[in-house]
């Protein structure tokens, strides 16, 4: 879990984008938007590496169809935000609030969401892989048909969460504070060779996406 850090700023020190386009450019340029209000902004189809959004207000914002590599959402508010069809690859989601957010069809890979809240969030058809979900709140979350792989769910709360059709691999549900009422079915058993091939393909595909995104950012504007 991230260490508690003092990131409070004076009002005059907060970088506050005035509109959606300015916010997009600031995020892509890795400007420190800690404490800024991006509430309700349309930021979909965003590609960014290392976005700094600590304690940022993104309630009701649209981050759908995006690729965010190592974003910092520490204590950020994404209540009722649209984050569907989005890839979060790594990053700090510690104490972030995704209450009521739509993360359907999204992939959260290698994230640290310790003490975060996905209460009543829509994670239908989502993939959560290699993620730290210690003390994370999934009460009344929709995880139907989700794919759950290598998760640390120590003390996580799945009270009234819907895991209908969900499948899991390498998740110790006994460590959860409140395990799901309906336990996910196991993923299809694979040989070690098949697992290696599939994992290599996944990593290679993500690496190509990140490379293409970074190369695009470096190209000079016409």
Strand and helix layout:
Layout lengths: L19 H9 L18 E3 L17 E3 L17 E3 L17 E3 L17 E3 L17 E5 L15 E5 L13 E2 L5 H27 L4
Parallel strand pairs: 1-2, 2-3, 3-4, 4-5, 5-6, 6-7, 7-8
The average pLDDT is 88
Give unreliable regions as ranges: 1-5
Between the first and last Cα atoms, what is the distance in angstroms? 42 Å
Enumerate the strands of the largest sheet in spatial order, edge to edge or round the barrel. 1-2-3-4-5-6-7-8
Question: What can you tell me about this protein's structure?
Answer:
The structure is a single chain. The chain has 222 residues and is an alpha/beta fold. Strands 1-2-3-4-5-6-7-8 form an eight-stranded parallel sheet, with helices on one face. It starts with 19 loop residues before the first helix and ends with a helix.
Key structural traits:
16% helix, 2 helices, 222 residues, alpha/beta, 8-stranded parallel sheet, disordered N terminus, globular, single chain
What is this structure, in a nutshell?
It contains two helices and eight strands. It has helices at residues 20-28, 192-218, and strands at residues 47-49, 67-69, 87-89, 107-109, 127-129, 147-151, 167-171, 185-186. It has an eight-stranded parallel beta sheet, with helices on one face.
